[in-house]
Specification:
Blueprint: H1 3-12, H2 17-35, E1 38-41, H3 43-58, E2 70-74, H4 101-108, E3 112-117, H5 151-158, E4 164-169, H6 175-181, E5 184-187, E6 207-212, H7 215-225, H8 243-246, E7 255-259, H9 269-284, E8 288-292, H10 300-315, H11 334-345, H12 348-361, H13 366-387, E9 393-397, H14 413-417, H15 424-429, E10 433-437, E11 448-453, H16 458-471
Helix pairs in contact: 2-3, 9-16, 10-12, 10-13
Length: 478
């Protein structure tokens, strides 16, 4: 069931929030043993919150736009009273004393938090294989990954365990797993949604956004999340349009840019076929397709892995075994204790990125790597600025391949990093971008169309995504 269906039925009294919550919890109990999307299920807390929503409805009090809607939260987003581990041993057992702003806004809209979902440790990965607590499996084919880093949130929605979920996207961590699991995943404009309470990976890139079973649901959730937050200095004081209404907007005459660079070597032919079919469907609905150039695209992966790792090496320095989280052998002197805690608490991929980030920031290498990467980031943003003078959105593949097998790329970090080759440029430019399902491969694996818009033009992006969705009826893996 979709987000709006649940909320509207609860508001009308046709469905109780408790029944909607119980249905979600039953699906988790039935399916999650095989898929492992959840790290923590908040059964008692969820049912109590649902009953409170029902009590308010019976008293005639107004309900929020997400009344009774079960929502899963990526375990890198803080939740008061519920464990938040970032899928890392170093935060095992940590329970935050506060909600992230995004979570607080969901609760204020009467959504019901049903649990915390698995991810690549500290959101560093593209397959959810880097979790310290086990892999998450793709419901379309359990031998394949769901993508990452927000793989657990994507699977929770794809498998019908919740109609929506929160993820975070630094370089593609919402959009790529959405594509690989056949869900809708949306990264807002940088600053559109508060980062307060999101465990930081790369602060100039991180954004919280929704997964949903349909475009309208993603729009409704984003409408709740969006808006200025005084606790996040990077959040934008910008008006939030009627995003849900945009999903029914006419797309005739909209100019759709198709970048040559995104259909080059490395794109699986079956993914290219599916995306081109989606572009033809948009053209049939009156969109005007235009070839465009984004000439600095080939530098995006290298640029991202300099900037993101540099910021990660700074952000993760706070995990030292002194204030919270894991502490290894407190009998050691301080320096030895910190070293032992980090060695035991961080996984291999996190260590790799800390080391790389520390290197590019070090004396003698800062100008050669970090400063140069910042300049290339500017060039990437200018590429989009130039293109958006000619078109309204840019459409492309989300991922170069459909869902890949477990272990297929784990031993080759570069191959794994290239999974985000099409999503990274929009992240570096701070643009809104989303994945919407289009035609599956001949083997039945999901494929996503990537829709990118100008800053704060989520409404235009959603209207194009909804037009694509109308052309390709959604399917369920289970």
């Amino acid at each position: 069931m979709h987000v709006a269906d649940v909320a509207d039925r609860v508001a009308r009294g046709e469905l109780t929030a408790e029944a909607a919550c119980a249905r979600s919890l039953e699906a988790i109990a039935a399916k999650d043993g095989a898929l492992h999307a959840f790290l923590h299920v908040a059964r008692d807390e969820a049912l109590a919150a649902a009953r409170a929503v029902d009590d308010r409805r019976r008293r005639g009090e107004p309900l929020g736009p997400l009344a009774g809607v079960p929502v899963a939260i990526k375990d890198a987003i803080c939740t008061e009273g519920l464990p938040t581990t970032a899928a890392s041993k170093i935060l095992r057992g940590y329970v935050p004393p506060y909600d992230a702003t995004a979570v607080a806004r969901l609760r204020a809209a009467d959504a019901i938090v049903v649990g915390k979902t698995n991810l690549d440790e500290f959101a560093m990965g593209s397959s959810t294989e880097n979790s310290a607590y086990g892999v998450t499996r793709n419901p379309w084919d359990p031998s394949r990954t769901p993508g990452g880093s927000s793989g657990g949130s994507a699977v929770a929605v794809a498998a019908g365990m919740a109609p929506c979920a929160l993820g975070s996207d630094t370089g593609g961590s919402i959009r790529q797993p959405a594509s690989l699991t056949g869900t809708v995943g949306l990264k807002p404009t940088y600053g559109r949604v508060s980062r307060y309470g999101l465990i930081a990976f790369a602060s100039s890139l991180d954004q919280i956004g929704p997964f949903a079973s349909d475009v309208r649901g993603a729009a409704r959730v984003l409408s709740v999340l969006a808006g200025r937050d005084p606790r996040d200095a990077t959040s934008l004081d910008a008006a939030v349009p009627d995003l849900e209404a945009a999903c029914g907007r006419e797309v005739r005459g909209l100019r759709v840019g198709v970048p040559d660079e995104y259909f080059a070597e490395g794109l699986a032919p079956e993914v290219g076929e599916s995306v081109r079919a989606a572009l033809r469907a948009l053209e049939e609905r009156g969109c005007v397709l235009r070839p465009v150039r984004l000439p600095h695209t080939s530098y995006a992966v290298a640029t991202y892995y300099v900037l993101a790792t540099a910021e990660a090496s700074s952000n993760l320095a706070r995990y030292d075994g002194v204030r919270y989280g894991l502490r290894v052998d407190p009998r050691l002197d301080l320096r030895a204790m910190i070293g032992a805690t980090r060695d035991a608490g961080f996984g291999a991929e996190v260590k790799r990125r800390i080391l790389l980030g520390t290197f590019v920031l070090s004396s003698g290498y800062y100008d050669a790597y970090y400063l140069k990467a910042q300049k290339v980031r500017t060039l990437l943003r200018r590429d989009f600025d130039d293109v958006f003078r000619e078109v309204d959105v840019v459409c492309s593949p989300v991922s170069p391949t459909p869902a890949f097998k477990f272990g297929e790329k784990l031993a080759d970090p570069i191959a794994m990093y290239l999974s985000d080759v099409y999503t990274l440029p929009a992240s570096l430019a701070g643009l809104p971008a989303m994945s919407v399902p289009c035609a599956p491969t001949r083997a039945g694996l999901p494929v996503g169309l990537h829709v990118v818009a100008r800053p704060l033009e989520e409404a235009t992006m959603l209207s194009v995504a909804a037009a694509c969705e109308a052309a390709f009826p959604c399917a369920s893996p289970l």
